[in-house]
Write a structure and sequence with these properties.
The chain has 2 domains: 1-85, no CATH class; 114-370, 3-Layer(aba) Sandwich (Rossmann fold). The protein is 37% helix and 17% strand. It has 13 helices and 15 strands. It has helices at residues 46-62, 98-109, 147-152, 154-173, 179-189, 204-208, 234-244, 246-253, 255-258, 274-278, 306-318, 332-343, 370-387, and strands at residues 2-3, 6-13, 18-24, 30-34, 68-69, 77-78, 114-118, 195-198, 213-215, 218-225, 231-233, 293-297, 321-325, 348-351, 364-366. The strands form 4 sheets. A 6-stranded parallel sheet has the order 9-8-7-13-14-15, sandwiched between helices. A 4-stranded antiparallel sheet has the order 1-2-3-4, with helices on one face. A 3-stranded antiparallel sheet has the order 11-10-12. A hairpin with a 5-residue loop joins strand 10 and strand 11. Helix 1 (46-62) packs across helix 13 (370-387), helix 4 runs parallel beside helix 8 and helix 5 (179-189) packs parallel to helix 13 (370-387). The protein starts with a strand and ends with a helix.
Length: 389
């Protein structure tokens, strides 16, 4: 089927339960829409994108999948049940309403210098658990290691690295960006977002194509020596740990298939038996031969690096709107950015499935899933830019 010079192909994958839309130009560039990444978005025309999405919906209805947008009744976007695939790590909530989607789209398009602040709720739809939701790690009594605990003893450092090593493959290799990451990256590329600040350490924003991401709390993808400050790549460090701990490395290879009872945590670590932790070997710094080595992550009780602090403050001081996505902004390092912007009478909007510390500062609050909602918001933003409604 053709619309202009675009060919639209719809593939329904039963395993995932989500439609994957594939469309391409006669020039051979492939653009994948829906649950799959949107590639080379800047090469696609906004009008053709809107038409492709609209036609895809019509074809789904014609194929017997009767999803619809009920604007005359409750205003709820009715997501077809066979295709609403929500991972167990994501909070339970209803789909977004038409009014909520339109309000978020209007908020985004009304800004010239939009600051977006994201958190763990953006990644829960990528099978990454969070801390504070009803399904989060805190609900099971889990307490993350603090900076003080990590520095207190080499035994604590071995415990951290053993658990992080065992969980790394699933955390870094077996997770992928969801619709929220892709929508945010696209909004960035199309100049709707001036600055993106994330509290997440998973680098899924980068994987989705976002650029100039300020990682407020660092990343697990890098390792820093606390003595000489040398920063190294986590993948190489993972190989070193595997060489020093071959038995755990072999067990980690089978974690997903043989140890599904292991509890994975938001920062990628897993629970391990005490004897495994005690015998785990952690190397010294490859540059200064000292250490200790630590992921370049701001632990609880740690401080945000000065350079990061200044960059985040500048973003807050120069924005004309703040959109909070997938976070309760409970940590002061993130909350102060919202508070300081609000003191300048900058409008604040929130998209997250739960209560937040900034609820009283927001003029718009949408308590829905980030990915499910932003996919529709992106479509609406493009339609408004193209057609004015």
């Amino acid at each position: 089927m053709r619309r202009g010079h675009f060919r639209i192909i719809i593939i329904l994958t039963r395993q995932v339960g989500t439609p994957h839309f594939c469309w391409h130009t006669t020039g051979g560039h492939t653009h994948r829409v829906g649950a799959v990444a949107v590639r080379s978005v800047r090469r696609a025309r906004a009008g053709a994108m809107s038409a492709a999405l609209a036609m895809s919906r019509g074809l789904l209805v014609a194929s017997g999948v009767h999803g619809r947008a009920d604007t005359a009744g409750s205003g709820t976007l009715s997501v077809p049940k066979p295709f609403r695939s929500i991972p167990p790590t994501a909070p339970t909530c209803d789909p977004p309403t038409v009014a909520e989607v339109n309000a978020l789209a209007e908020f985004i398009t009304s800004s010239q210098r939009l600051l977006v602040i994201t958190g763990a709720g953006v990644s829960t739809e990528s099978n990454v658990p969070d801390y504070r939701s009803p399904k989060g790690a805190y609900s099971t009594g889990f307490k993350p290691m603090s900076h003080q605990d990590f520095m207190r003893s080499s035994a604590n450092q071995r415990r951290y690295w053993a658990r992080s090593f065992a969980g790394w493959r699933r955390f870094a290799e077996d997770t992928s960006p969801n619709d929220a990451h892709h929508a945010i990256a696209t909004l960035q590329h199309e100049n709707f977002i001036k600055k993106l600040i994330t509290q997440n350490v998973d680098r899924l924003h980068h994987a989705a194509g976002s650029q100039d991401v300020l990682e407020l709390h660092g990343t697990t993808h890098e390792v820093v020596c606390l003595s000489c400050k040398h920063v190294s790549d986590r993948k190489q460090f993972q190989k070193t740990l595997a060489r020093l701990n071959p038995e755990l490395a072999e067990a980690a290879d089978h974690t997903d298939t043989e140890h599904r009872t292991l509890k994975f945590r938001p920062d990628g670590d897993v629970e391990l038996a005490g004897e495994v932790v005690v015998n785990f070997k952690v190397p010294p710094c490859p540059v200064c031969a000292r250490g200790p080595l630590k992921p370049r992550v701001v632990f609880f009780g740690d401080s945000v690096p000065t350079e990061t602090h200044h960059a985040a403050t500048h973003a807050s001081n120069t924005c004309d709107a703040v959109l909070i996505i997938g976070t309760s902004v409970s940590t002061f390092s993130a909350f102060r950015l919202v508070r300081d912007a609000a003191r300048r009478n900058v409008p604040v909007a929130i998209l997250t499935a739960g209560e937040t510390r900034a609820d009283d500062l927001a003029s718009l609050t949408v308590k829905k899933l980030a990915g499910e909602t932003l996919r529709l918001v992106l479509e609406t933003v493009r339609r408004k830019e193209m057609y004015g409604y």
